[in-house]
Each structure stands twice: as C-alpha cells, then as structure tokens.
User: Fold these one by one.
Assistant:
Number 1:
Amino acid sequence: MTRQIDKRPRRLRQNATMRRLTTQVCLDPSDFIAPLFITEGEQVKSPIRSMPGQFQWSIDLVKGKAKQLHELGIPAILLFGVPETKDSEGSGAYAEAGLIQRALREIKEFVPDLLLICDLCLCEYTDHGHCGIINAPGSPQFDAKFPHGYLLNDATLERLERIAVSQAMAGADIVAPSGMIDGMVGAIRGALDRADYSQVGVLSYAVKYASAFYGPFREAAAGAPQFGDRHSHQMDPANVSQIFVESQLDIDEGADFIMIKPALAYLDVIHRLSARHPEIPIVAYNVSGEYAMIKAAAKAGWLDERQAILECLLGIKRAGADILVSYHAEEVCQWL
Ligand code: PBG
C-alpha cells in the first residue's frame, strides 16, 4: 500500500549498494598518522596496560612495526621517546645520541619513504614531568616575577629550538611541538631555517586542551607532572574563542599543519577551525583516553568494538579533520 508522502529519504538507504553510492565520508589509510612509543633496550615490546594493543618498543623492534604500517598504506608515524634517564633540563630531548635521535636514524634507513613525525616537548625528558623549564629558585633561569613552579615560556623556547634542530638532523620529516608554549612555532621555524632544514615541516599542536583523556598516555610515556598540572599553558575545556587566536598565531608563525587535541569532546573545535582555515591541513588527535574507553567497553562486551571505532573516526573526519592521529590506525587499516 503506497501512501502519498512527499519526501522519502529512505530511498537512498534502501540497500547496501545504494548506501555505498551515497556515502560521503570515507576512511582511507592515507588519512592516518600512527603514534609509537620508543624505549631503551633490545627486543623490548612492552605492553601498555591502560592501552590494550599498544606497546613501548625498543628501536630494533620498532623498525619492523614501522615497515608494517608503511605497507598498510599509512603515510606517517608520530614518535614519542620514553627515555630511561631524565633531568631537570630535559637534556635527553636534544642529545645527539638521544633515544629519539637514534630511533629516527634507524627507522629512516629501514623505511625511507615513511614520514617520521617527532613529538617535540620536554615532558618525557624532564624529571619533574613538565613541558619546559620550571621556575625554581637557584636555577640559572629563575625569574622572580613568576611563581615557583611556573612553566617559563621564553626560557623554554630556546630548548624547543635545540630539540627541533636535533630531530631534523636525525631525520625527522616533520616536528610536532606539543607544549602550547607561546611563540613556539615561530621559534622552531626560525631555528630550522637557520640550520638549513627548511624542508622539515612543523605540525603544531595549536589547540590542545587540558584534558583528562591524556591519562593513559602519561602512563605510556611516563610523562605525568610530578607536581602541579598543565593548566597554565593548555586550554580550558570550557573555552572556545581562544582557538582562533591560537590557530591564527601558529599559521602566521609558519605552521604547516594545525592539530586539535583531544578529538571526540572537541568536534565543534575541529569543525570551526576547518571552516576558518581551509588553507591548511587540519589534524585531529584521537588521544589515549579515547582509545582506552573503547577498548575497555569492548572488553566488557558493552559495545561492538569495530563499529564503535569506525564511528568515532568517521565522526572526527566528518567534523572536518583531514588527518587523524590515532592508536587505532593499524587495526582500522587492516579492516579497510
Ligand atoms: C606531551 C603530549 C601529551 C600527549 C601527546 N603529547 C601529554 C600531555 O600533554 O599531557 C597526549 C597524547 C595522548 O593522550 O594520546 N608531550
């Protein structure tokens, strides 16, 4: 029995072929950046408890993993170092024979066409776990205008410049400053250009919120602050207008990509920035806590893992992200 109904949107959903024809957003391996954690030692593949399916890798083993990801069609990996020793200055972050520098050289040689992106921050290398130089009485950088324990902006910039150049020297294709330090992109761009690394790109964590969803990462990278928090530099989840200031500054300072982080609770931010900046690739970081939530719920049998993962990633892309940093990258590319 046919009734008179003016519009029948279900026509476009009536069978799988029609649905395939009318699909708007697709995931493709070329959308992904896969994060990897590197640790010292040999033959180490150490499971990260809070991120089932993710590991800390020693350099000898991560090379094989990098090759597999490349063969799946993933264009880039994002490297985080989990060094054995740390100090108050985070000097391991720019040591020539530092963990990440060695990893970059070896992976580049083993898989030359895979793009190597390097997280550029001090928090994994400082014994206090902060993303830069901390204002401490007695230290050479002490500045009485700021409270004790405050993250010193300009003293930190000089460190970030050194890290950027050392990562570029070791073979990084793109550096990814993640500290939300004012002026970081301009400082890094200038340092790379002066050192004759103008081909090395900057992927800026332009809009990074002070989020609970980094919890599992801090276990994975052993980079939790030993005191205080990151609220003086990362953004307040209640705010949105600052995203325009942060993103515009980074673009003006020379960022080649801008990243929004986390992704799922900030789809409005992704949407607004992709509309505001059609000139630059928008990257969204589907962070550790977002990954862990799905893994935990799936393990409990509370949702369909595959469908939930694809739905989240499609949602991030639909919101306007061009590129997804996700711990799901490998599994998703195996399904596609
Ligand atoms: C800082 C950094 C963090 C993450 C990426 N880079 C942690 C933080 O800001 O506390 C989090 C990523 C994730 O949760 O997956 N170097």
Note: DSSP finds eleven helices and twelve strands in the chain.
Number 2:
Amino acid sequence: MVKHVMNAAQASAAASRVMQRADELAQISETPGQLTRVYLSPEHLRANHMVGAWMEQIGMATWQDAVGNICGRYEGASEGAQAILLGSHLDTVRNAGRYDGMLGVLTALEVVAFLYENNLQLEQAIEIVGFGDEEGTRFGITLLGSRGVTGTWPDNWLACVDAAGISVAQALVNAGFDPSRIKSAARSPEEFSAYLELHIEQGPVLERENLALGVVTAINGARRLKCRFVGEAGHAGTVPMTIRKDALAAAANWMTYIESATAIYAPDIVATVGSLQCLPGAANVIPGEVLLTLDIRSPRDADLEALLGNLLSEAQQIAAQRGVTFDSEIYYSIPATPCDAGLQRQLTSAIASVQGRSLSLPSGAGHDAIAIAQLWPVGMLFARCDRGISHHPAESVMEADVMQAVRAYTQTVMALAAKNTLIEFNDGSENEALNLIAPCVAIPAWTEKLVAARPYLNVHVLQHYASQLTLDWGGEELNHALAAHPRIGEKAQGDGKEALFSKGEQSAVDTQNSALTLALAQGNAEYEERFGRVFLIRAKGRSGEDILTELHRRLNNSPAQEETEALEQLRQITLLRLEGVFAQ
Ligand code: 2AL
C-alpha cells in the first residue's frame, strides 16, 4: 500500500488550480459572454488541446482518439499495465455552467499531478479521458464520446445531422478525423479495471445534508409515458355532479395518488406529471379528455417496474370508479445503471475519511458512466453545487469542496491502483491463487476449478463463473464447507482470513445481548440435533434477531427443504466473500 497522503497545502493548491482551469476552459466558447461548446466544433478541439497540454505537464502520454476524445496515460509500475480510467466530458449544453463535466476531468488531472509530483508509479496505470460528447447538444444523440470508447456507435449515427444540416460524418472530416476509423477509438475490456467519474451533483441533496461529497449508488433508470383519461364532455351548468364523467377530476385524483404513493414507496424514487392538456379546455365545459405525461425514475429497475405497475392499476381503478377510461403508452425507457459495489465501498471510505461521514445517493441525471458500465465496473462521486443549479451559467462550486473532492478522489485511486487482486490472482502461482480464495469456502473442488480456469478478463467474469460452479453443490459440499463458518453468535477463532470474514459478516449480531446469545446457542444446538450439521445463514445485513427468527423458521423444514435452503445461504456467503477478496 502506498503511504503518501495529500496534505492540506497540496489539496489547496490543487483545488485552486481546478477553479482557475475551469475559468480558462469556460473562455472557449462559440457564443461570446456565454459558455457553449459542442462536439467537433473548433472550440471542442481547442479545449482538447488545452487539456492535452495539462496532461503532458504531469507526465502523461496523450492522444486524441478517433471520435475526438482527449486521452492521457500515466504509466503504471510495469509498462502496459491495466489502467484505471478516470474521466468526464468537455462538451456543454448551450449557455452552460463551467463545472458540469469539466470538474471531473480537472480533478482527475489533480489525482495524476499528485502521483507525478511525488514520483509515484502504482501497480496500475491511470488514464484520463475528456469525452467529446455527453450532452448531445449538437446532434441530438448523446454519449458519442463514451460510446466511442466502448465501440458501440450504431451504424446510423454517422448520418445524423445538426441544425445546419451537417452530418456527424462530415463534422468528423471537418475536424480532421476519418469516419471510417471510428472503431479504432474502442478499447478492449482487459485494458481497464474500473472507471471513476467525479461530477457535480446537479441536485440539492448534498447541500441540504451539509456535505461536500457523496457516493453515487446508481444512475437512475427512467420511463416516460403518455397517458390519457377519456370521459364525457358536457354542459358545466346542466349535468348534475353525480352523473358526470369528468376526465380532469379523474386525472387530478390520480396525480395526488402518484405523489403520495411515490413518496412512501422509497426515498430515492421520483415520479412527475410534467404536462397536462385538458380538452376541450373551456370554462363552461366538463373536461371530456385529459392528456398527461408521467416521468418515473429509480436507481433500481425492479422497484421502478413495481411502482409503475401500482400507479397504472390505480389509474384503472380511479377510471372505473368514475366511469371514464384510462390508457397509457411508454415512449421512453432507459434501465438503471448500478455503480459497482466494491468501488462504492472504496469511495465511501475515502469520503468518510475526508469529511467525517459519507452519503450514498442516486444520480437523477445521465452521465458518461452509463455507456462505460457496459464494459467496466463504474464508480461515481458527486460534489455539492450551489442550490443544485446546473445547465445554467449560475452553476457554481466552492473551492473548499473541490479541495475535499481532490483528496477523496486521490485516496480512492491510490488505494485501487496500488493493488490489483485480479492481476495477483491471474498471474500468481497456483498456490498463491488458491490461498487468495480458499477462505471464501472450504470446498477444495470449487477453489481448484476457479484457479484452473485462470486468467479472467475482469472481476465480473470471475464472479459469474464462481457463481455457476456453486450450482453443482449438494449435501456433501455443504458438510465440508462448515469448516469455514463458525456458529452464529460464537466468536470466530484466530485472526485468519476466514475468522476475519466471519466477524465482519456477523458484526450486526449483538453479542453483548446475553438473552439473544443464549437463544441463538439453544437454537444452534436444536438445529444440530435435528439436522446433524451447523446452522448456516448469510449473516451480512441481518441482525441477531432476524437470524434467530430465521433459525426458528428453518427448524420446521423437512431435511430436504433445509438442505436446499442451507446450500443457498452457503452460495451467498461464498460469493460475498469472493467479492470482498477482489474489492480490496
Ligand atoms: C456464518 C459465517 O461465518 N458467515 C456468515 O454469513 N454465516 N456462519 C454461519 N454459521 O452461518
């Protein structure tokens, strides 16, 4: 582990440089007095040039890739090492603020500057990318830069045109690129171990929590629907209240339901009716038809689908009660992009160490990480911005927050890049590799098969195969495995990795509570008497009381049922431990 820590003076100098460079970049605009910098414009190329020069000052090799991203590489301890990719975008909306995108690139430069100034080379290389297009301002299609890096430009993108009728292909040529070579911007999966992006929050949560920084859990998935209530228009003076089929009253009823049901569903889900059209729309006519939109977003697709299902069925019920009809159609849908759990943990611990505590929150806005997550694990940090204002010239961040951001970012990257357990696992001797994963579970066949199938392209591939292999387990494996799992409520012996794992997993079991400890001990004994082996349960995330309830429930299982349940718990414990080994 590298011991260097950024001190206050270094962080302060770095933050002041970030602020000054954000001002310098903001001067590169097509509209005097405002900031507008769109993909493949002369201003885009000038910004790339400026950022490229800054990269070179801190020992990075630089290049502009085939879709116009500016890229830089700071070599790792061995040439050609796998890299951690840091980045964000350099394009803007029209009349933009100066931090959206740029802050991520400028803070990444400070991470590398710290390494360079301290003469540090880490196990992994660090690459920085300033993406050419995230916002989609010019061509109406988004993430052209990051989807260049993943090599997933759809064929029809080259033909898309801007407001002046210039196609993407022509714009590439005008900017000195060759449209037939865009595929060469694609990077292969093994080149990067992870992608990190720092971004302004563009929302008010951190400010309200009085925090400079937070960790992103996921970039929200979203659905947009066109909805319609159809009732019966009628004379506002003559139709009695009891026999009306008022489409607007039904819509109003539904809207208040949407608001209250969403608020109680989960704190991080939002739903909005943003437009409402009432027909025929006259003061003296009962509304016969209402067209409205529903926008719903969540960091978890399953929750989004469940809530949406509930809202739509409520709409049907309201319609039925009022004698009107309801229909809807999804016209926009994007899945959530979860951030990698291991990267979230690293970011959380770095942020907590610089600001005392961390906060996890979803991103309501889209980011380059959406595209990058197709190939690499992604992690994001958010920095507070004034009143959450973004996409506006009033966008603003505090230099003191940037100082914290640079510190947390540097700490995270150094921790990740100093060690790469997957490389250790892939390149180590058979014994070294076995030792790394043996504490996950005492089933030698599983461990050996995982080692035999080395090398793995990335941690996801390894986890997937490890999970597949657990499907073959039966009663015999279950009995073997118990060696790595002390009883619940009993302190694990020793300071070996298994004991450390187990202590962490059982940390929510309150061993000071003697009534609970006694009840668990009794339950364990009863279980062992009945099933002839130790009671196994994934303890992580469960309290002692929860576990006790489960233990009592499972005592009523038939032996066959219980074997299935115990095996499932064993799988979960093993895969969680494996995640822990490779997350570092
Ligand atoms: C354990 C353990 O060691 N970790 C965990 O999640 N559960 N032990 C057990 N008997 O279930």
Note: The mean pLDDT is 94.
